[in-house]
Design goal:
The chain is α+β, with helices and mostly antiparallel strands and 427 residues long. 47% of the residues lie in helices and 21% in strands. It has helices at residues 22-36, 52-59, 65-84, 137-150, 202-206, 253-259, 266-300, 307-327, 332-339, 343-348, 351-370, 377-391, 395-401, 404-422; strands spanning 2-10, 13-20, 93-101, 105-113, 127-128, 153-157, 167-176, 179-192, 214-220, 233-247, 425-426. Strands 6, 7, 8, 9 and 10 form a 5-stranded antiparallel β-sheet that branches. A 4-stranded antiparallel β-sheet has the order 1-2-4-3, with helices on one face. A two-stranded parallel ribbon has the order 5-11. A hairpin with a 2-residue loop joins strand 1 (2-10) and strand 2.
Protein backbone atom coordinates (compact mmCIF):
# COMPACT_ATOMS: atom_id res chain seq x y z
CA UNK A 1 0.00 0.00 0.00
CA UNK A 2 1.40 3.36 -0.99
CA UNK A 3 0.68 6.94 -1.97
CA UNK A 4 0.97 7.37 -5.71
CA UNK A 5 0.30 11.12 -5.90
CA UNK A 6 -1.09 14.05 -3.96
CA UNK A 7 -2.22 17.27 -5.65
CA UNK A 8 -4.04 20.34 -4.43
CA UNK A 9 -7.12 20.79 -6.63
CA UNK A 10 -9.06 23.47 -4.73
CA UNK A 11 -9.00 25.55 -1.56
CA UNK A 12 -8.51 23.06 1.29
CA UNK A 13 -9.01 20.14 -1.12
CA UNK A 14 -6.41 17.60 -2.30
CA UNK A 15 -6.79 14.70 -4.71
CA UNK A 16 -4.77 11.67 -3.72
CA UNK A 17 -4.06 8.46 -5.60
CA UNK A 18 -3.63 5.36 -3.46
CA UNK A 19 -2.36 1.95 -4.53
CA UNK A 20 -2.71 -1.45 -2.91
CA UNK A 21 -0.35 -4.15 -4.16
CA UNK A 22 -1.72 -7.34 -5.73
CA UNK A 23 -0.67 -9.64 -2.88
CA UNK A 24 -2.29 -7.47 -0.19
CA UNK A 25 -5.51 -7.29 -2.16
CA UNK A 26 -5.47 -11.03 -2.84
CA UNK A 27 -5.07 -11.65 0.88
CA UNK A 28 -8.01 -9.33 1.53
CA UNK A 29 -10.12 -11.28 -0.93
CA UNK A 30 -9.27 -14.45 0.97
CA UNK A 31 -10.24 -12.75 4.24
CA UNK A 32 -13.54 -11.69 2.69
CA UNK A 33 -14.16 -15.28 1.59
CA UNK A 34 -13.39 -16.58 5.09
CA UNK A 35 -15.87 -14.13 6.60
CA UNK A 36 -18.64 -15.22 4.24
CA UNK A 37 -17.81 -18.89 3.87
CA UNK A 38 -20.33 -20.22 6.36
CA UNK A 39 -23.20 -18.63 4.47
CA UNK A 40 -22.11 -19.77 0.97
CA UNK A 41 -23.79 -22.77 -0.59
CA UNK A 42 -22.90 -24.30 -3.98
CA UNK A 43 -24.37 -27.37 -5.65
CA UNK A 44 -22.30 -30.42 -4.74
CA UNK A 45 -20.95 -28.88 -1.52
CA UNK A 46 -22.29 -28.70 1.97
CA UNK A 47 -23.11 -25.20 3.14
CA UNK A 48 -19.93 -23.42 4.17
CA UNK A 49 -17.63 -26.00 2.54
CA UNK A 50 -17.31 -24.63 -1.01
CA UNK A 51 -13.65 -23.77 -1.85
CA UNK A 52 -12.87 -20.17 -2.66
CA UNK A 53 -11.85 -21.04 -6.22
CA UNK A 54 -15.16 -22.78 -6.91
CA UNK A 55 -17.10 -19.79 -5.54
CA UNK A 56 -15.15 -17.43 -7.80
CA UNK A 57 -15.72 -19.73 -10.77
CA UNK A 58 -19.43 -19.82 -10.07
CA UNK A 59 -19.97 -16.14 -9.40
CA UNK A 60 -17.00 -14.52 -11.10
CA UNK A 61 -13.54 -13.62 -9.85
CA UNK A 62 -14.78 -10.25 -8.58
CA UNK A 63 -17.29 -11.81 -6.20
CA UNK A 64 -15.22 -10.77 -3.12
CA UNK A 65 -13.74 -7.55 -4.49
CA UNK A 66 -16.13 -5.10 -2.83
CA UNK A 67 -15.73 -6.71 0.59
CA UNK A 68 -11.98 -6.92 0.11
CA UNK A 69 -11.86 -3.24 -0.76
CA UNK A 70 -13.63 -2.43 2.50
CA UNK A 71 -10.93 -4.42 4.29
CA UNK A 72 -7.92 -2.66 2.72
CA UNK A 73 -9.46 0.79 2.32
CA UNK A 74 -9.08 2.26 5.84
CA UNK A 75 -5.43 1.34 6.34
CA UNK A 76 -4.43 2.14 2.76
CA UNK A 77 -6.07 5.57 2.78
CA UNK A 78 -4.73 6.48 6.21
CA UNK A 79 -1.23 5.40 5.21
CA UNK A 80 -1.44 7.54 2.05
CA UNK A 81 -2.71 10.54 4.01
CA UNK A 82 0.13 10.16 6.51
CA UNK A 83 2.69 9.83 3.72
CA UNK A 84 1.32 12.94 2.01
CA UNK A 85 1.49 14.74 5.39
CA UNK A 86 -2.06 15.99 5.04
CA UNK A 87 -4.23 16.99 7.99
CA UNK A 88 -7.61 15.72 6.83
CA UNK A 89 -10.69 17.13 8.55
CA UNK A 90 -13.46 15.07 6.95
CA UNK A 91 -14.15 11.77 5.22
CA UNK A 92 -12.72 11.33 1.68
CA UNK A 93 -15.17 11.94 -1.16
CA UNK A 94 -15.47 11.48 -4.93
CA UNK A 95 -13.98 7.99 -4.69
CA UNK A 96 -12.97 6.43 -8.01
CA UNK A 97 -11.51 2.92 -8.31
CA UNK A 98 -10.25 2.46 -11.91
CA UNK A 99 -8.23 -0.67 -11.10
CA UNK A 100 -9.23 -3.52 -8.81
CA UNK A 101 -8.14 -7.12 -9.28
CA UNK A 102 -6.11 -9.81 -7.55
CA UNK A 103 -3.53 -9.70 -10.33
CA UNK A 104 -3.08 -5.92 -10.47
CA UNK A 105 -4.04 -4.82 -7.00
CA UNK A 106 -6.07 -1.65 -6.45
CA UNK A 107 -5.73 1.93 -7.61
CA UNK A 108 -7.98 4.53 -6.01
CA UNK A 109 -8.50 8.23 -6.53
CA UNK A 110 -10.29 10.38 -4.02
CA UNK A 111 -10.51 13.91 -2.70
CA UNK A 112 -9.92 14.95 0.89
CA UNK A 113 -10.67 18.17 2.74
CA UNK A 114 -7.72 19.43 4.74
CA UNK A 115 -7.15 21.82 7.61
CA UNK A 116 -7.02 25.38 6.30
CA UNK A 117 -3.88 27.31 5.56
CA UNK A 118 -3.67 30.03 8.19
CA UNK A 119 -1.95 33.39 8.16
CA UNK A 120 -1.87 34.91 11.62
CA UNK A 121 -2.17 38.65 11.85
CA UNK A 122 -1.28 40.73 14.86
CA UNK A 123 -1.99 38.98 18.15
CA UNK A 124 0.35 40.76 20.57
CA UNK A 125 0.11 44.31 21.83
CA UNK A 126 -3.61 44.58 21.13
CA UNK A 127 -5.86 47.04 22.92
CA UNK A 128 -9.40 46.66 24.28
CA UNK A 129 -11.77 48.30 26.74
CA UNK A 130 -11.59 47.02 30.30
CA UNK A 131 -14.86 47.45 32.15
CA UNK A 132 -15.43 48.81 35.64
CA UNK A 133 -14.62 46.40 38.44
CA UNK A 134 -15.87 48.31 41.50
CA UNK A 135 -19.46 48.16 42.70
CA UNK A 136 -21.24 51.53 42.75
CA UNK A 137 -23.94 52.70 45.14
CA UNK A 138 -26.42 52.30 42.28
CA UNK A 139 -25.32 48.68 41.77
CA UNK A 140 -25.94 47.89 45.43
CA UNK A 141 -29.27 49.75 45.42
CA UNK A 142 -30.41 47.78 42.35
CA UNK A 143 -29.50 44.47 43.98
CA UNK A 144 -31.33 45.45 47.16
CA UNK A 145 -34.36 46.33 45.03
CA UNK A 146 -34.19 42.89 43.40
CA UNK A 147 -34.00 41.27 46.83
CA UNK A 148 -37.06 43.24 47.91
CA UNK A 149 -38.91 42.05 44.80
CA UNK A 150 -37.98 38.43 45.50
CA UNK A 151 -39.24 38.76 49.07
CA UNK A 152 -42.37 40.74 48.28
CA UNK A 153 -45.92 39.60 49.00
CA UNK A 154 -49.22 40.18 47.25
CA UNK A 155 -51.98 41.99 49.10
CA UNK A 156 -55.56 42.49 47.90
CA UNK A 157 -56.65 45.88 46.59
CA UNK A 158 -60.33 46.91 46.62
CA UNK A 159 -60.28 50.69 46.43
CA UNK A 160 -58.91 51.23 42.93
CA UNK A 161 -58.75 49.73 39.41
CA UNK A 162 -56.02 47.33 38.35
CA UNK A 163 -52.70 48.94 37.40
CA UNK A 164 -49.71 47.68 35.46
CA UNK A 165 -47.56 45.75 37.93
CA UNK A 166 -50.61 44.34 39.76
CA UNK A 167 -51.70 40.73 39.60
CA UNK A 168 -55.30 40.39 38.44
CA UNK A 169 -57.16 37.12 39.00
CA UNK A 170 -59.37 36.80 35.93
CA UNK A 171 -61.71 34.55 33.99
CA UNK A 172 -61.32 34.80 30.22
CA UNK A 173 -62.58 33.12 27.07
CA UNK A 174 -61.39 33.93 23.55
CA UNK A 175 -63.46 34.08 20.37
CA UNK A 176 -62.47 34.36 16.71
CA UNK A 177 -65.28 35.26 14.30
CA UNK A 178 -67.73 34.66 17.15
CA UNK A 179 -66.51 31.09 17.77
CA UNK A 180 -64.63 29.98 20.89
CA UNK A 181 -61.25 28.35 20.12
CA UNK A 182 -59.31 25.62 21.88
CA UNK A 183 -56.90 26.80 24.57
CA UNK A 184 -58.50 30.23 24.81
CA UNK A 185 -60.27 29.80 28.12
CA UNK A 186 -59.12 30.17 31.71
CA UNK A 187 -60.67 30.61 35.17
CA UNK A 188 -59.22 32.37 38.20
CA UNK A 189 -56.01 32.93 36.29
CA UNK A 190 -53.42 35.08 38.14
CA UNK A 191 -52.18 37.45 35.42
CA UNK A 192 -49.31 39.79 36.30
CA UNK A 193 -50.01 42.94 34.28
CA UNK A 194 -46.89 43.99 32.43
CA UNK A 195 -45.30 40.53 32.46
CA UNK A 196 -45.86 40.11 28.71
CA UNK A 197 -47.12 36.58 29.25
CA UNK A 198 -50.30 37.15 27.23
CA UNK A 199 -50.86 38.34 23.65
CA UNK A 200 -49.53 41.89 23.04
CA UNK A 201 -52.16 44.44 24.08
CA UNK A 202 -54.11 42.09 26.36
CA UNK A 203 -52.65 43.07 29.71
CA UNK A 204 -52.89 46.81 29.00
CA UNK A 205 -56.66 46.43 28.42
CA UNK A 206 -57.15 44.62 31.73
CA UNK A 207 -55.54 47.56 33.54
CA UNK A 208 -58.11 50.20 34.45
CA UNK A 209 -60.87 47.76 35.41
CA UNK A 210 -62.17 47.04 38.90
CA UNK A 211 -63.07 43.85 40.77
CA UNK A 212 -66.25 42.24 39.35
CA UNK A 213 -65.96 44.22 36.09
CA UNK A 214 -66.89 42.25 32.98
CA UNK A 215 -65.35 43.56 29.77
CA UNK A 216 -63.99 42.68 26.32
CA UNK A 217 -60.33 42.66 25.33
CA UNK A 218 -59.68 43.06 21.60
CA UNK A 219 -56.36 41.78 20.27
CA UNK A 220 -54.70 40.47 17.10
CA UNK A 221 -52.66 37.30 17.25
CA UNK A 222 -49.03 37.76 16.09
CA UNK A 223 -48.13 36.45 12.63
CA UNK A 224 -45.68 33.98 14.18
CA UNK A 225 -48.40 32.49 16.42
CA UNK A 226 -49.64 28.93 15.89
CA UNK A 227 -50.89 28.44 12.35
CA UNK A 228 -54.67 28.33 12.94
CA UNK A 229 -54.69 31.63 14.87
CA UNK A 230 -51.76 33.55 13.35
CA UNK A 231 -52.69 37.10 12.37
CA UNK A 232 -56.36 36.73 13.36
CA UNK A 233 -58.39 39.22 15.36
CA UNK A 234 -59.86 37.91 18.61
CA UNK A 235 -62.19 39.06 21.37
CA UNK A 236 -61.69 37.85 24.94
CA UNK A 237 -64.60 38.01 27.37
CA UNK A 238 -63.07 38.80 30.76
CA UNK A 239 -64.04 39.23 34.40
CA UNK A 240 -61.83 40.35 37.30
CA UNK A 241 -62.26 38.49 40.60
CA UNK A 242 -59.43 40.00 42.60
CA UNK A 243 -56.68 42.57 42.28
CA UNK A 244 -53.43 42.22 44.20
CA UNK A 245 -50.55 44.62 44.44
CA UNK A 246 -46.97 43.81 45.27
CA UNK A 247 -45.93 44.93 48.74
CA UNK A 248 -42.19 45.26 49.29
CA UNK A 249 -40.56 44.70 52.69
CA UNK A 250 -38.87 47.64 54.40
CA UNK A 251 -35.11 47.99 53.88
CA UNK A 252 -33.95 47.69 57.47
CA UNK A 253 -31.86 45.47 59.72
CA UNK A 254 -34.66 42.92 60.07
CA UNK A 255 -34.88 42.61 56.30
CA UNK A 256 -31.11 42.12 56.11
CA UNK A 257 -31.21 39.30 58.66
CA UNK A 258 -34.16 37.67 56.89
CA UNK A 259 -32.43 37.53 53.50
CA UNK A 260 -28.93 36.66 54.76
CA UNK A 261 -28.39 34.83 58.03
CA UNK A 262 -24.69 35.76 58.00
CA UNK A 263 -25.37 39.47 58.60
CA UNK A 264 -26.93 41.38 61.48
CA UNK A 265 -27.51 44.81 59.96
CA UNK A 266 -28.44 46.45 56.69
CA UNK A 267 -25.02 48.09 56.55
CA UNK A 268 -23.37 44.67 56.81
CA UNK A 269 -25.58 43.41 54.00
CA UNK A 270 -24.63 46.38 51.83
CA UNK A 271 -20.95 45.76 52.54
CA UNK A 272 -21.29 42.10 51.60
CA UNK A 273 -23.19 42.96 48.41
CA UNK A 274 -20.52 45.53 47.49
CA UNK A 275 -17.85 42.85 47.70
CA UNK A 276 -19.88 40.25 45.77
CA UNK A 277 -20.84 42.69 43.02
CA UNK A 278 -17.25 43.92 42.71
CA UNK A 279 -16.00 40.34 42.36
CA UNK A 280 -18.58 39.59 39.67
CA UNK A 281 -17.84 42.82 37.80
CA UNK A 282 -14.12 41.98 37.90
CA UNK A 283 -14.81 38.52 36.46
CA UNK A 284 -17.09 39.98 33.79
CA UNK A 285 -14.57 42.66 32.88
CA UNK A 286 -11.77 40.12 32.57
CA UNK A 287 -13.89 37.81 30.41
CA UNK A 288 -15.12 40.62 28.17
CA UNK A 289 -11.57 41.97 27.83
CA UNK A 290 -10.32 38.54 26.75
CA UNK A 291 -13.23 38.07 24.35
CA UNK A 292 -12.60 41.45 22.74
CA UNK A 293 -8.92 40.63 22.27
CA UNK A 294 -9.60 37.17 20.82
CA UNK A 295 -12.14 38.72 18.46
CA UNK A 296 -9.40 41.03 17.20
CA UNK A 297 -7.09 38.04 16.76
CA UNK A 298 -9.55 36.17 14.55
CA UNK A 299 -10.42 39.36 12.67
CA UNK A 300 -6.70 39.79 11.92
CA UNK A 301 -6.32 36.15 10.85
CA UNK A 302 -6.63 34.98 7.25
CA UNK A 303 -8.08 31.49 6.82
CA UNK A 304 -10.73 29.93 4.59
CA UNK A 305 -12.35 27.47 6.96
CA UNK A 306 -13.86 24.35 5.34
CA UNK A 307 -17.60 24.23 5.91
CA UNK A 308 -17.33 20.66 7.19
CA UNK A 309 -15.43 21.93 10.25
CA UNK A 310 -18.33 24.25 11.09
CA UNK A 311 -20.84 21.44 10.55
CA UNK A 312 -18.87 19.11 12.81
CA UNK A 313 -18.78 21.75 15.54
CA UNK A 314 -22.56 22.24 15.24
CA UNK A 315 -23.01 18.49 15.70
CA UNK A 316 -20.74 18.58 18.77
CA UNK A 317 -22.70 21.44 20.31
CA UNK A 318 -26.02 19.71 19.66
CA UNK A 319 -24.65 16.48 21.11
CA UNK A 320 -23.47 18.31 24.24
CA UNK A 321 -26.91 19.92 24.56
CA UNK A 322 -28.48 16.47 24.26
CA UNK A 323 -26.23 15.14 27.03
CA UNK A 324 -27.30 17.97 29.34
CA UNK A 325 -30.95 17.23 28.60
CA UNK A 326 -30.37 13.54 29.37
CA UNK A 327 -28.97 14.50 32.77
CA UNK A 328 -32.35 16.14 33.42
CA UNK A 329 -34.17 13.01 32.21
CA UNK A 330 -35.25 14.53 28.88
CA UNK A 331 -34.70 12.96 25.47
CA UNK A 332 -33.67 15.50 22.83
CA UNK A 333 -36.25 14.23 20.31
CA UNK A 334 -39.00 14.66 22.90
CA UNK A 335 -37.64 18.12 23.65
CA UNK A 336 -37.78 19.07 19.95
CA UNK A 337 -41.36 17.81 19.70
CA UNK A 338 -42.25 20.02 22.64
CA UNK A 339 -40.66 22.99 20.88
CA UNK A 340 -42.30 22.06 17.58
CA UNK A 341 -38.90 22.12 15.86
CA UNK A 342 -37.11 19.78 13.48
CA UNK A 343 -33.52 18.79 14.17
CA UNK A 344 -32.37 20.82 11.15
CA UNK A 345 -34.08 23.95 12.48
CA UNK A 346 -32.64 23.29 15.93
CA UNK A 347 -29.13 22.99 14.52
CA UNK A 348 -29.41 26.36 12.79
CA UNK A 349 -29.44 28.03 16.20
CA UNK A 350 -25.90 26.79 16.79
CA UNK A 351 -24.38 27.76 13.43
CA UNK A 352 -23.08 31.24 14.29
CA UNK A 353 -21.62 30.09 17.60
CA UNK A 354 -20.01 27.07 15.95
CA UNK A 355 -18.31 29.20 13.28
CA UNK A 356 -16.95 31.51 15.96
CA UNK A 357 -15.64 28.64 18.08
CA UNK A 358 -13.93 27.01 15.09
CA UNK A 359 -12.14 30.22 14.12
CA UNK A 360 -11.09 30.85 17.71
CA UNK A 361 -9.70 27.32 18.01
CA UNK A 362 -7.76 27.72 14.76
CA UNK A 363 -6.31 31.06 15.82
CA UNK A 364 -5.24 29.84 19.26
CA UNK A 365 -3.65 26.71 17.78
CA UNK A 366 -1.63 28.86 15.40
CA UNK A 367 -0.52 31.11 18.25
CA UNK A 368 0.57 28.04 20.21
CA UNK A 369 2.66 26.95 17.22
CA UNK A 370 4.13 30.41 16.70
CA UNK A 371 5.08 30.67 20.38
CA UNK A 372 6.32 27.05 20.63
CA UNK A 373 3.86 26.45 23.45
CA UNK A 374 3.83 22.96 24.95
CA UNK A 375 1.99 21.25 27.79
CA UNK A 376 4.34 19.87 30.43
CA UNK A 377 3.81 16.58 32.23
CA UNK A 378 3.27 18.51 35.49
CA UNK A 379 0.56 20.63 33.84
CA UNK A 380 -1.17 17.58 32.41
CA UNK A 381 -1.15 15.83 35.79
CA UNK A 382 -2.49 18.98 37.45
CA UNK A 383 -5.30 19.10 34.87
CA UNK A 384 -6.11 15.44 35.54
CA UNK A 385 -6.22 16.08 39.31
CA UNK A 386 -8.45 19.10 38.78
CA UNK A 387 -10.93 17.10 36.68
CA UNK A 388 -10.83 14.19 39.14
CA UNK A 389 -11.80 16.51 41.99
CA UNK A 390 -14.46 18.23 39.88
CA UNK A 391 -16.20 14.99 38.88
CA UNK A 392 -15.51 12.94 41.99
CA UNK A 393 -13.36 10.40 40.14
CA UNK A 394 -9.82 9.19 40.59
CA UNK A 395 -6.98 10.21 38.28
CA UNK A 396 -6.83 6.90 36.43
CA UNK A 397 -10.52 7.11 35.57
CA UNK A 398 -10.01 10.58 34.12
CA UNK A 399 -7.04 9.40 32.05
CA UNK A 400 -9.14 6.54 30.69
CA UNK A 401 -12.06 8.83 29.86
CA UNK A 402 -10.25 11.88 28.46
CA UNK A 403 -7.56 11.53 25.76
CA UNK A 404 -4.20 13.00 26.78
CA UNK A 405 -4.15 14.88 23.45
CA UNK A 406 -7.31 16.72 24.49
CA UNK A 407 -5.81 17.69 27.83
CA UNK A 408 -2.64 18.90 26.11
CA UNK A 409 -4.67 20.93 23.63
CA UNK A 410 -6.74 22.54 26.42
CA UNK A 411 -3.57 23.55 28.27
CA UNK A 412 -1.89 24.95 25.14
CA UNK A 413 -5.06 26.86 24.28
CA UNK A 414 -5.15 28.54 27.69
CA UNK A 415 -1.47 29.43 27.37
CA UNK A 416 -2.12 30.92 23.94
CA UNK A 417 -4.89 33.08 25.42
CA UNK A 418 -2.44 34.20 28.12
CA UNK A 419 0.03 35.28 25.43
CA UNK A 420 -2.61 37.51 23.88
CA UNK A 421 -3.92 38.91 27.18
CA UNK A 422 -0.59 39.45 28.93
CA UNK A 423 0.75 41.48 26.01
CA UNK A 424 -2.43 43.56 25.60
CA UNK A 425 -3.20 47.04 26.79
CA UNK A 426 -6.33 48.29 28.51
CA UNK A 427 -8.01 51.07 26.58
Amino acid sequence: MALKSSNKVDTNVYEIEVTVDAQTFADACKSAYMRQRKSIQLPGFRKGKAPMGMVEKAYGEAVFYEDALEIVYPQAVQAAIDEAELRVVDQPFDLDVPVMSKSEGVEMKMKVTVYPEVKLGKYKGLKAEYGETEATDDDVAEELKNMQERNSRLVSVEDRPAEMGDTAEIDFEGFVDGEAFDGGKGENYPLELGSGSFIPGFEEQVAGHNVDDEFDVNVTFPEEYQADLAGKEAVFKCKIHEIKKKELPELDDEFAKDVDEEVETLDELKEKLTKQISEKKAEDAKREFENALIQQVIDNMEAEVPECMNTQKVDELVQDYGYRLQMQGIDINTYLQYLGQSMDDFKKQFEDGAKQQVRVAIALEEIAKAENIEATEEEINAEVDKLAEQYGMDAEQIKAAVPIEQLENDIKTRKAVDVVVDSAKKA
